[in-house]
Fold this protein.
Amino acid sequence: MSRIEAEDEVVGIAADLIRIDTTNTGDPATVVGEREAADYVVGKLVEVGYEVERVESGAPGRDNVFARLPGADPSRGALLVHGHLDVVPADPSEWSVHPFSGVVRDGYLWGRGAVDMKDMVGMMIAVARRFKRDGITPPRELVFAFLADEEAGGKFGSQWLADNRPDLFEGCTEAVGEVGGFSLTLPDKQGDPARLYLIETAEKGVAWMRLRARGRAGHGSFLHEDNAVTTLAEAVGRLGRHRFPLVVTETVDEFLTSVSEATGMEFPRDDLEGALAKLGPLSRIIGATVRDTANPTMLDAGYKANVIPSTAEAVVDCRVLPGREEAFLREVDEILGPDITREWVSHLPALQTGFDGDLVEAMGAALRAEDPEARTVPYMLSGGTDAKAFEDKLGLRCFGFAPLRLPPDLDFASLFHGVDERVPVDALRFGTRVLDRFLRSC
Ligand SMILES: [Zn+2]
């Protein structure tokens, strides 16, 4: 029998995973498919000889799968390699192909989860299988984790596991998962393409809050001075329009310096956001990492046209830079004023780690072995991932590293949670080769 490389299996595995609908609506009552996806992962790992542990994280059907591969040097900390099995909803009527078809067309694998993140989960499974088949012992122990509920903040996934089953992560000191390792192509000083691979070393904090105004209930036809809807609407308007101060964190500073070195682009601090626009579609993510943001997303008040309700509520999606939490909340409370109360809907810390050390070196070396032009740069994700639970609760040093070499003109950022989510087949195979090298040398 000829040897099967990990990259030969990855497209089929990722396609199989896409075909299992694991829609996470955020409402635990309507979540589907995580158990079926876990069954699939278990099958693929057990087939090649892994012993797996399957864990339900706080509610029926919220299945997670763990597998360990011992390393050559037990004195070194283990590396957690994590991916989530759930996806956000997709409306088939908006798509060019059915979102759960997992079809390969025009050089792409299509479907919900193709970049977030059944691509990486497929790569993890393919590499784990090849290591076992070929009897490869990695330098340090590897812990593969396939997780539920990332798309709703990990309450029934990473957060629950870190709180209730820390033993599953025993010995782990560092972690890799989403969202990073993908290429961004920009013209260099000579106008030739420079390929930068963005490694995630920081994440903004999540601060979703419910605002509430209370007033006096009354008849809609009377004079009324104390209307909760008016009070709330004014506060939401003030907060939604507010611009928080520009703060260039260590990670963003290093990112900008690296991009400048590679391309000659300049990022003057007095027009930073203007300059960031030169990064193309990715500027939507990078631009959101130089300020805290507060976007009102939900409003709720009243039940009849002529009844003034006594309360009105809004939800605001706030994202906070590392080190800014206290100052941010002071600023928010000042803007809201004394008539508004707030409570947490979700509150997860920001993360930031340095872009140095052996693991970072190993990522760069693995990328350059497959793409000699690769330059690695650190960046901050404006969103949040399962890494929050692992850093905050388990003290792991977390990176986003799901390597993909992307076509220069692909608007990668728009594919996350987007319509017609898809991943280039070449990128998936490339990423698998890089992950294989990385896990054999880290
Ligand atoms: Zn994701």
